[in-house]
C-alpha cells in the first residue's frame, strides 16, 4: 500500500548472532577457553569449571558455523541480507586474554569470514566481545573487577582494528553492557558470587572498567580507522511502564529505567549521572576511578547506539509480582499486552511491538544519535511438520508487528541505521543454553543434547523475511 510508511533505501536489513553461540570449534586452531565454554546445557551464569567430561556443553560445537559459514552466508544472501552482525571471539585471537602476541589462525578465520560477507555484498556489523571473555582472565584476575583487563582488552581492540580496517565499518564495544549487573560471570567474567564478601564492589568496579575500556576503544577506532568506521555501544533495552498512574509507581518506573539509561548515558553523554554516583555512595561502593578515566569517557563517546529489544517491563511500587523476562526481576504483568505464542510461552516474554516504537523515540529524544536495532526476535519451539516444513507463522506475526512499528517510528523522524533480527539461524540460546529455544529463519538439526546432523532447512519465515527485504518493507502490509 503506497500510503504505508516504508524504510530508507540504504536501510541495513539483516540478522545477528554471537561467535560463541554459533561457531563451535571451541578448541580448534589455537583458540583458548572462554567463559561461554564452561556453561553447561540449561545453565546461564553458573559455570562448571573446570570442564566436566560427563557434562554436555552446547557451546563447544554450537551449530559449527566455524566450518559451515560459507554455506550459511549463501543462505543469508538468498534472503537478501544487507548486513550481518556477529562478534569476534576474544579467545580465538588471544587464547588467554593476556598473551603478548595474537593467534594468527584466529585472525585469519575472521579475515576469511569478513571477505565472504563482503563478496556477497553483506556489511559486517561486529561486536568486539559478546559474552565470551577468555576464561584465563577469570582465573588469573577475577574478570573485569581487575583493572588490568582494560589493558588486555585494548590490546585485543588495537589488533582487530588494525587488521580489519577497510573491511568492517560498524563496531560495537560490548554486547548488552548493562547485563553485567544481572549475569556477572557471562557479562564480566566475575568469579565472586552474589552473597560473598566484596560482591557488589566487584560488580561496580567491573562496570567502571568496561566503561573506560569502551571509551578507549572508541578513541582507538577513530585514530586507526578515521571516518571510515562508526564505533557504537550496545545495550539491552526495553521501556518500563508504571502499573498505575500512582506517582509512586511513576517513581518506581523511573528507578527501573535508570538501571539501563545510566549505561547509555556514560557511553553517549560521556559522564556518570549524579544520581547514580549518589546511589552508589549510599551503598558504600566506591568506583575505582583513576586519573584520566573520566576524561577519556568524556572525550570519546560513541557514534551510534545499538540495542536489543525483546519486550517491555511493568513495575509497581508495591514490588514483587511475576518475573517477565530472563534478567529483569520484580516486574508485574501488564494486562494490555498479549502473551507470546504457545510455542514460546516457556520463556515468558510478553509481546509489546509498540514498546519498540516507544524505545526508538525514547532513545532518539534522549541522545539524538543514530540508532541500530541489532537484536529482536522470538525464541520458540519449532516443529518439523509431516510435509518436512517448519510452519513458524507465530514468528512471522511477531516480527511483522514489530517491524510495522519500526516503520512508523522512521516515518515519525527516528534516525535508524538498520535492523538485524536475533538469530537468523538457530543457535545456542544465551539465556538458557538450549537449542530448543529457536530464533532462526533457518532450522538447524540439533537438539538440546547435541544430537542431530546440523542440516540447515529454511523455515516459512525465511521466505517471508526475504520478501520483506526485497520490497524494502512493503511486504509488511500485504
From TrEMBL:
GO molecular function: beta-glucosidase activity
Keywords of this entry: Glycosidase, Hydrolase
Any one Gene Ontology BP term: carbohydrate catabolic process
Region forming the signal peptide: none
Annotated Gene Ontology cellular component terms: cytosol
InterPro entries: GH, Glyco_hydro_1, Glyco_hydro_1_AS
One of the Pfam families matching this protein, by short name: Glyco_hydro_1
Positions of the catalytic residues: 375
Origin: domain of life: Bacteria
Family (UniProt): Belongs to the glycosyl hydrolase 1 family.
Protein name: Glycoside hydrolase family 1 protein
Species per Swiss-Prot/TrEMBL record: Entomospira culicis
Taxonomic placement: Bacteria, Pseudomonadati, Spirochaetota, Spirochaetia, Spirochaetales
Amino acid at each position: 500500500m503506497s500510503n504505508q510508511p516504508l524504510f530508507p533505501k540504504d536501510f541495513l536489513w539483516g540478522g545477528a548472532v554471537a561467535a560463541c553461540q554459533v561457531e563451535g570449534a571451541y578448541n580448534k586452531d589455537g583458540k583458548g577457553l572462554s567463559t561461554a565454554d564452561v556453561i553447561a546445557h540449561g545453565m546461564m551464569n553458573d559455570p562448571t569449571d573446570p570442564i566436566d567430561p560427563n557434562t554436555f556443553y552446547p557451546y563447544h560445537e554450537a551449530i559449527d558455523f566455524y566450518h559451515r559459514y560459507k554455506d550459511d552466508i549463501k543462505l543469508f544472501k538468498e534472503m537478501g541480507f544487507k548486513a550481518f552482525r556477529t562478534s569476534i571471539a576474544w579467545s580465538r585471537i588471544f587464547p588467554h586474554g593476556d598473551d603478548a602476541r595474537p593467534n594468527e589462525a584466529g585472525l585469519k578465520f575472521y579475515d576469511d569470514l569478513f571477505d565472504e560477507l563482503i563478496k556477497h555484498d553483506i556489511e559486517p556489523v561486529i561486536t568486539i566481545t559478546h559474552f565470551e571473555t577468555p576464561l584465563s582472565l577469570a582465573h588469573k584476575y577475577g574478570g573485569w573487577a581487575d583493572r588490568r583487563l582494560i589493558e588486555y582488552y585494548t590490546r585485543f581492540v588495537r589488533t582487530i582494528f588494525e587488521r580489519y580496517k577497510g573491511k568492517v565499518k560498524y563496531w560495537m564495544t560490548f554486547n548488552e553492557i548493562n547485563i553485567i549487573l544481572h549475569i556477572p560471570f557471562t557479562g564480566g567474567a566475575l568469579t565472586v558470587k552474589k552473597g560473598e564478601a566484596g560482591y557488589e564492589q566487584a560488580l561496580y568496579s567491573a562496570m567502571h572498567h568496561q566503561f573506560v575500556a569502551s571509551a578507549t576503544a572508541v578513541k582507538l577506532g577513530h585514530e586507526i580507522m578515521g571516518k571510515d568506521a562508526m564505533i557504537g555501544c550496545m545495550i539491552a533495552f526495553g521501556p518500563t511502564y508504571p502499573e498505575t498512574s500512582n506517582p509512586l509507581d511513576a517513581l518506581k518506573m523511573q528507578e527501573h529505567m535508570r538501571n539501563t539509561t545510566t549505561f547509555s548515558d556514560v557511553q553517549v553523554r560521556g559522564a556518570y549521572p549524579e544520581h547514580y554516583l549518589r546511589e552508589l555512595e549510599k551503598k558504600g561502593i566506591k568506583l575505582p576511578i583513576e586519573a584520566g578515566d573520566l576524561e577519556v569517557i568524556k572525550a570519546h563517546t560513541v557514534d551510534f547506539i545499538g540495542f536489543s529489544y525483546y519486550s517491555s517491563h511493568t513495575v509497581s511500587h508495591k514490588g514483587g509480582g511475576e518475573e517477565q523476562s530472563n534478567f529483569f526481576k520484580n516486574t508485574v504483568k501488564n494486562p494490555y499486552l498479549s502473551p507470546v505464542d504457545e510455542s514460546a510461552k516457556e520463556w515468558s516474554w510478553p509481546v509489546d511491538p509498540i514498546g519498540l516504537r516507544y524505545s526508538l523515540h525514547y532513545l532518539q529524544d534522549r541522545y539524538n544519535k543514530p540508532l541500530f536495532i541489532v537484536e529482536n526476535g522470538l525464541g520458540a519451539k519449532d516443529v518439523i511438520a509431516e510435509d518436512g516444513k517448519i510452519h513458524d507463522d507465530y514468528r512471522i506475526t511477531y516480527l511483522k508487528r514489530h517491524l510495522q512499528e519500526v516503520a512508523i517510528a522512521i516515518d515519525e523522524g527516528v534516525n535508524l541505521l538498520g535492523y538485524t533480527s536475533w538469530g537468523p539461524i538457530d543457535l545456542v540460546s544465551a539465556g538458557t543454553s538450549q537449542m530448543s529455544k529457536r530464533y532462526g529463519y533457518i532450522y538447524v538439526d540439533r537438539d538440546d543434547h547435541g544430537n542431530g546432523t546440523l542440516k540447515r532447512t529454511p523455515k516459512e519465515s525465511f521466505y517471508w523475511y526475504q520478501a520483506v527485504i526485497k520490497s524494502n518493507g512493503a511486504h509488511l502490509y500485504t
